[in-house]
Every structure is written in structure tokens, then in C-alpha cells.
Design a protein that fits this description.
The protein has 222 residues and is an alpha+beta fold. It has nine helices and four strands, in the order E-H-E-H-E-E-H-H-H-H-H-H-H. Glutathione (GSH) binds next to helix 1, helix 2 and helix 3.
Length: 222
């Protein structure tokens, strides 16, 4: 493992679900990094992000060698550079499965992302659940159960121990809490609800939420 000198460029902790993913992987593993926070939805947000990454989106991980951007690329990079943390499962079949569902999260679930956007500190009524959103929620419930049943070994996370797949799905757990979604209405036998609790009970998730509260307080007093 190489020594690290990382800066993770992230957006608002209350809203930036993509930022949470690599932040959680880094923090859960205890990999040291500095945070560079950019307030999103401001006239100068884009220019501020572009100072760090050519993609113009957060998150981005600045390393001694350059910059890695896009949440999935960053967690892949971390898994490769910090193998001792086993951010992907050791077993080849489990690893392929973890990558598949992480890619599915990264490229899909558009209705869930649009209609139930991350609003970490809020507690809101569920949005109208149309057919497409229902399909997204049912698919997530099913894929969590499938991964946990096949590869979870009775542990709290999808592949037993914490992995990049959990980092990729963590914001979804917060959305289900924010919007008070009763997962049993979407085919859950309790596995998905227990998984949501396991994610939300992570001390690192409480730390991220504290950071979100601090940002809100700071802005209220500015
Ligand atoms: N596919 C990207 C998506 C990144 C993304 O959409 N980030 C949002 C914040 S959560 C952003 O930077 N928005 C600011 C903008 O587009 O100007 C990833 O996985 O990192």
C-alpha cells in the first residue's frame, strides 16, 4: 500500500449523495484524508468545482498523482490502493456481484434519485409512488435481499463485512428514512429494513450527519 495524501472534494453533506459514497468508504476504513467542501446550488459552485476536477462534478479525490473523479471510479481506486481493507469482497463471484450492483446503482434508479433526492436531515412524506418509482424501490429491496442471502454470511452488510457496495447504497438508506418508506409494501421480508438500520447505525453515518447539521448552522448564522 502506498502512503496517502488525499483531499476529497465534496458537496453539501445534506444533499450530495454522490459525495457521501467515497467519503464513507474512506472514513469507514480509517484512511486519512482532508475534506474540501464546496457549497452546491450557488452561482459560483461550478467554477469552484472546476478548479479541482475537469468533470465539473463532486466528488473528486485529489491524490499525490492527480485527481480521480466520479464516485464509482474513486471507490474502485481506493479498493486497489488499500487492498488490506477489502473494499470489494475477496471471493471472486461475490466481488463480481458487488461490482454489478454497484454499477447498477451508479447508472440506474433515476426515478428514485429524482423523486426521493437525498435530504439527509429532513423527514418528509413519501412522494406519489408511480409505476417507475415503485419498480426502482422493489428492485432495490430484491437486490439487497439477493446479495445478503447469497453472500452476506449473516453479517449486517450486503457481503457480510462493509464493502464498496454498501458505500454505493448508503444514500438510498437515508432516502428511505427521510421519506418514511415502508419497505414491506415493496416486497421486503425484513432484510432490507434491517440493512437500512445497519447502514444508518454506522458511526460514520452519524459523523456525516453531524457535518450536515454544522453546515446548516453555519449558513443560518452567516
Ligand atoms: N456520476 C457522478 C455524479 C456526480 C454528481 O452528479 N454530483 C453532483 C452533486 S451530488 C454535482 O456535482 N452537482 C453539481 C453540478 O452538476 O454543477 C458520480 O458518481 O460522482
Amino acid at each position: 500500500m502506498a502512503t496517502t495524501s488525499y483531499t476529497l472534494v465534496i458537496g453539501d453533506k445534506n444533499f450530495s449523495s454522490w459525495s457521501l459514497r467515497p467519503w464513507l468508504a474512506l472514513t469507514h476504513c480509517g484512511i486519512p484524508f482532508a475534506e474540501e467542501r464546496i457549497r452546491l446550488r450557488q452561482p459560483d459552485s461550478k467554477a469552484a468545482i472546476l478548479r479541482h476536477t475537469p468533470a465539473g462534478k463532486v466528488p473528486a479525490l485529489k491524490t499525490t498523482g492527480g485527481v480521480v473523479w466520479d464516485s464509482l471510479a474513486i471507490v474502485e481506486y481506493l479498493a486497489e490502493r488499500h487492498r488490506e481493507h477489502r473494499l470489494w469482497p475477496a471471493d471472486e463471484e461475490a466481488r463480481a456481484h458487488a461490482r454489478s450492483i454497484s454499477a447498477e446503482m451508479h447508472s440506474g434508479f433515476v426515478a428514485l434519485r429524482n423523486d426521493m433526492s437525498m435530504d439527509l436531515l429532513a423527514r418528509l412524506p413519501p412522494p406519489p409512488i408511480g409505476e417507475v418509482l415503485e419498480t426502482d424501490i422493489r428492485r432495490i429491496v430484491a437486490l439487497w435481499k439477493d446479495a445478503h442471502t447469497r453472500f452476506g454470511h449473516g453479517g449486517p452488510f450486503l457481503f457480510g463485512a462493509f464493502s464498496n457496495a454498501d458505500a454505493m447504497f448508503a444514500p438510498v438508506a437515508t432516502r428511505f428514512r427521510t421519506y418514511g418508506v415502508d419497505l414491506s409494501r415493496f416486497g421486503d421480508d425484513g432484510t432490507a429494513a434491517a440493512y437500512v438500520r445497519a447502514i444508518l447505525d454506522l458511526p460514520e453515518m452519524a459523523e456525516w450527519a453531524e457535518g450536515a447539521k454544522a453546515e446548516v448552522r453555519q449558513r443560518a448564522s452567516a
